[in-house]
Amino acid sequence: MSLLDVRDFCVAFGAREVVHKASFTLDKGEKLALVGESGSGKTVTALSLLRLIDGAHLSGYVGWDGRDLLKTPLLDLQRLRGRDIAVIFQEPMSALNPIATVGWQIAEALMLHRGLNQHQADQAAIEALDRVGIDHPSDRARSYPHQLSGGQRQRVLIGMALACNPRLLIADEPTTALDVTVRREILELIETLCKDFGMGLIMITHDLNLVRRFADRTVVMEKGYIVETGDTLTLSQNPQHPYTRKLLSSIPERQVGPVQSGVPVVLAEAVRVDYSVPLPGFRGWFRQGIFTAVQGVQFNLAAGQTLGIMGESGSGKTTLALALLGLIKGAHGRIEVAGLAWNRVNGATQRLMRRRIQVVFQDPLSSLSPRMSLEQIVAEGLTVHEPTLTPTQRRARVIQVLGEVGLISDGASEEILQRFPHQFSGGQRQRIAIARALIVRPQVLVLDEPTSSLDVSIQKQILLLLTQLQQQYALSYILVTHDIDVIRAMAHQVMVLKGSLVVEQGDFDRVLNHPQSAYTQELIAAGYRGSDASTAAHER
């Protein structure tokens, strides 16, 4: 008997059906990948199996232990959720409670589902954090979600889902925010649980490299339909459907342009970022300690040039990016943007600098206002920096930039412009964030994991778009990412961070093709997407 048996499963919202007669099975210990572009129905299908989406009309059959989950009483289904069937959600910042420590959130699930007392649950929560590779787990257990990096928050969600040793794990982009080395460790942990305890896995992902290396079977979805399914090795070597062939051919290509000479657009010298942290014991009553997140950073960035910043979660990548944006008070050293330094300008000049350097944040859902429509979000920069534009002119600019990032096509309807962020998929929200930054035509764009939530075909389009915009407008990019292929596609310079320090820095060819540091070599080996599918399958 299969662990999960899905037959003719349909999901509809009102009169609109978004998932059409999906059928597949999952055996004990099997790893199944749901693959497709944003909006293809992957997440809706997986979450609807547990009836987690409000307002969805479900039909068909979802078999679990001989019963239909679609007809199971809600109270019984709630007992299954988190204990027998666990979910890793795509957006860690929105999935975690912002007013509770991460240790408490894991302990709460353990007390509810495993009947542990408070002390036992606290210890088990620390073990869960250590299990997923979080440094100093006893200290991190007392942290709130906003005090952790994006990758650390993702690991918390994974640790929470695995804490109760579920029989089925539904993982929605589980490694999106993880650096390549931690990704490998997490996947090895999940694979061990599948092998040793018979845990089944449904992985929702757009990372075809991950699928080739990890999944036993693959289900390809397009516009709510399953268009192809089969053994991962066979499907990757001999895809039958044109859509599957399109996905498999969507590896980013390097098309960078020449670098312009002249005065650097961004200048950084001896940059250091310090944070105040409480000291343990009674000493914390009288003074605070200092935590150095970044130190010894320096570089020059010319017009039309991209600096790629690599490193594990917690290495200081995002902290450095925020310092370059003038958003951290604890930053020291010299940081200049277009000849102006953050610590030497008044408010009016700072507004000018903010137009010159824009940012695309890592977590699109938490960076977009839930109370503003698509048009309001994208046009907000124009209301600040170009207040003389008429409403008609602003709307024209909004439609233009949304078309550039592939979110809408010609003749966009009013309904699309009036949608709110929660009404878009994860990949679509990331494109909204990119459009919001691009609309004021900055000189410098800080890209914090700009393609982490995008499916591979759209990722390739966005990288090509960013390259074209860079060549057209001489844009400078500061690219923060753990995706080696994105670095290969876009970077002119590369900086590698580890534990707040720069371990290697130089031009693209020297760092990526001839790395000197053992740490850089490890990152490149773990993250290169061009692995042969058959070799990966034999390794499994």
Can you walk through the features of this model?
With 540 residues, the chain is α/β, with parallel strands linked by helices. Helix content is 39%, strand content 25%. It is built from 23 helices and 20 strands. The strands form 4 sheets. It has a 6-stranded mixed sheet with strand order 6-7-8-3-9-10, sandwiched between helices. A 6-stranded mixed sheet has the order 16-17-18-13-19-20, sandwiched between helices. The chain starts with a strand and ends with a helix.
Task: Describe the protein's topology.
Blueprint lengths: L3 E10 L2 E11 L4 E5 L6 H7 L8 E8 L2 E2 L5 H7 L4 E4 L3 H4 L6 H13 L3 H14 L5 H4 L9 H13 L5 E5 L7 H18 L2 E6 L2 H7 L2 E6 L2 E7 H6 L4 H7 L17 E13 L9 E14 L4 E6 L5 H8 L6 E7 L2 E2 L5 H10 E4 L3 H4 L6 H12 L5 H14 L9 H4 L8 H13 L5 E5 L7 H18 L2 E5 L3 H7 L2 E6 L2 E7 H6 L4 H10 L5 H7 L1
Helix pairs in contact: 4-5, 5-7, 9-23, 15-16, 15-18, 16-18
- Biggest sheet layout: 6 strands, mixed
What share of the residues does DSSP label as strand, in percent?
A: 15-25%
| Structural class based on helices, strands and sheet pairing | alpha/beta
* Cα-based radius of gyration, to the nearest Å: 24 Å
**Helix proportion range:** 25-40%
Q: Name the average pLDDT.
A: 85
CATH architecture of the largest domain: 3-Layer(aba) Sandwich
Oligomer: single chain
Terminal CA distance reads 24 Å
Task: Please give the order of strands in the largest beta sheet.
Answer: 6-7-8-3-9-10
Low-confidence stretches: 528-540
Q: What coarse outline follows from CA principal-axis ratios?
A: globular
CATH C-level category of the largest domain: Alpha Beta
Q: Give the full name of the CATH homologous superfamily of the largest domain.
A: P-loop containing nucleotide triphosphate hydrolases
What is the total number of structural domains? Answer: 3
CATH topology of the largest domain: Rossmann fold
Number of strands: 20
Please, how many helices? Answer: 23
